[in-house]
Design a protein that fits this description.
The structure holds 2 protein chains of 2 kinds. Chain A is mainly alpha-helical. Helix content of chain A is 49%, strand content 10%. In chain A, the strands form 2 sheets. Chain A has a 3-stranded antiparallel β-sheet, sandwiched between helices. A two-stranded antiparallel ribbon of chain A has the order 2-6. In chain A, helix 2 crosses helix 4. The N and C termini of chain A lie far apart (75 Å). Classes of the chains: A mainly alpha, B alpha/beta.
Chain lengths: 252, 286
């Protein structure tokens, strides 16, 4: 009886299983090494995709450790769609539950950041909001307005110095990470996503705006975390990087 | 059967290469004999960004062939409707000259295994594959090309030869064929038949495109040669000889140089395209 695809799939993902029965080299001889070509193709293709998606995670773990981790992850979490550029969604949760690495708390957040950069790279294009729109409004109308982010914009919240860890591993000569909580805002002005560090109050402002809150309410959310919150530096980053695409002002 | 109003493939009978983003600038300044580009459908199924912008720029100068690697046409389950929808979206905006996929499976249930996995050539597989191709051609409203696989093993239950199997698929669905002569060379070596014998039995009238590419050499459990499809090096002389053998029967056809791994600098890939151009010229003067 020939193997069905369910049996083939199980043998492909489990290196302990022998080559399924019903396969031949064309001359009726054993096929273990031949079946192993497919098994190897699957593991290598998935591991290569993970290597491309998680360069900082690989640097943090070292090549050897990453190359051991990738097939383990691949066999237990094969892709859920043929869109390989998004492969690895389960990596942050996998890392949290992976005992040998669970003591390195920020690995999971780095994986979330790298997934966010990928999503931003492939996100829809958008026309940035003209800053003049913001300046044209009376202060009260501005406070009551809501803002829409570009499709590429992502917020990766973290209790670790996430931006500093990312930069230290990606940029030559970057300073060592400081022991502060740092979230990351991802924007994409043209085609290349860029990460920006956010303090907890700035992250709260972004979260509130993403949740559809007014500029006034977002300001209150940020002030609740830092009494000296000043929106200006963050607003500059947002406008310079095309992160805002629409302002909605309530009709009087 | 194929509806006459459907778009037939319309790639030029000239060399093409698999598009790699690192060749974007070189392709526009120094294309050599390259007249068309093949892209993997799934790499362009994001929502926008650089991948889409590069395709929009390239299609002004090159015909585009969309080559799917994720449809799992040989899958035991139903085709992934969401994925077929994404494919339709891509083809609708890109309007490529051709769409091709593989005689293989890659998806099982909700899992995508990212490899072109082998099929037994039986009546049951034939029914399934032809149903899926009908569905694809109906949904996309265009003729698709189906590529022969590179095989490392065979199924004892197979009752059809691969060439008869492909011919019957063409007869039932009206699809065209993508003849990969590197895959023919690999499968013939691995399964113990002659590549030229395969080509002589192959339904050449349906060929809409030909692939050449590189492979790696290994040995099997018995120490017999085991060739592995890698697309990671230049095509070897016997594969170029097979291309010319095939072209002698098919006449001029679009010829793609596939190089997907360890991608070389542009001049190396352009040299492979020039070799394909020479093979096409040799046919033209015959």
């Amino acid at each position: 009886m020939a193997p069905n695809q369910s049996q083939l799939r199980a043998a492909l993902l489990d290196p302990a299983q022998p080559s399924p029965a019903g396969l031949t080299d064309g001359q009726g001889k054993p096929t273990q090494k031949r079946f192993d070509v497919y098994r190897n193709n699957v593991t290598v293709a998935l591991s290569d995709a993970l290597r491309a998606s998680f360069p900082v995670l690989r640097k943090l773990l070292g090549d050897e450790n990453f190359d051991q981790l990738a097939p383990l992850f691949a066999r237990s979490h094969p892709p859920s769609s043929p869109l390989m550029m998004y492969y690895g969604d389960a990596m942050p949760t996998f890392l949290k539950g992976f005992a040998p690495l669970a003591h390195i708390g920020y690995l999971s957040d780095i994986a979330r950041l790298e997934l966010g950069l990928r999503r931003a790279y492939h996100a829809a294009d958008s026309e940035p909001l003209d800053p003049a729109v913001l300046e044209s409004l009376a202060p009260e109308a501005l406070q009551a307005s809501t803002l829409t982010f570009a499709p590429a914009v992502q917020l990766i919240t973290s209790d670790w110095p996430l931006f500093d860890i990312w930069r230290y591993n990606m940029v030559d000569g970057a300073p060592k990470p400081q022991a502060v909580a740092q979230s990351v805002l991802i924007t994409r002005a043209a085609f290349d996503p860029s990460p920006h560090p956010l303090d907890p109050a700035q992250a709260a402002w972004i979260t509130a705006i993403q949740g559809g809150k007014t500029i006034d309410a977002a300001h209150d959310a940020a002030l609740a975390i830092a009494a000296d919150f000043d929106l200006s530096p963050l607003l500059t980053v947002l406008l310079q990087n095309g992160a805002l695409i629409r302002m909605t002002t309530p009709k009087d | 059967m194929l509806d006459a109003t459907r778009h037939p493939p319309r790639l030029p009978a000239a060399p093409g290469v698999g598009f790699k983003p690192q060749h974007f600038n070189a392709l526009r300044s120094d294309p050599g004999p390259v007249k068309w580009l093949e892209v993997h459908a799934e790499n362009y199924m994001g929502d926008g960004g650089r991948p889409h912008a590069q395709l929009r720029a390239l299609r002004d100068n090159f015909a585009i062939s969309v080559h799917g690697v994720g449809l799992s046409i040989g899958g035991e389950g139903a085709l992934d409707a969401a994925h077929l929808g994404r494919l339709k979206t891509l083809l609708d905006w890109l309007e490529p000259a051709s769409f091709s996929e593989h005689l293989a499976w890659s998806t099982h249930g909700a899992e995508f295994l990212d490899d072109l996995l082998p099929l037994p050539y039986t009546d049951a597989t034939l029914t399934r594959v032809t149903d899926h191709i009908d569905q694809v051609q109906d949904t996309l409203n265009r003729q698709m090309l189906l590529e022969n696989p590179s095989s490392y093993l065979a199924f004892t239950e197979s009752t059809w030869s691969e060439t008869d199997f492909l011919a019957e698929i063409v007869r039932r669905t009206g699809c065209g064929l993508l003849l990969d002569v590197n895959n023919v060379f690999i499968s013939a070596t691995n399964l113990g038949y002659t590549a030229t014998g395969y080509l002589d039995a192959y339904p050449t009238a349906a060929v809409g495109e030909i692939h050449v590419g590189g492979h790696d050499e290994d040995t099997d459990d018995q120490g017999a040669p085991l060739l592995i499809d890698s697309h990671g090096c230049a095509a070897v002389d016997p594969v170029w000889a097979l291309l010319e053998h095939a072209l002698a029967t098919t006449g001029p056809r679009p010829v793609l140089v596939e190089w997907d791994n360890d991608v070389p600098d542009w001049p190396v890939l352009r040299a492979e395209a020039e070799r394909a151009a020479a093979s096409l010229s040799a046919i033209a003067v015959r």
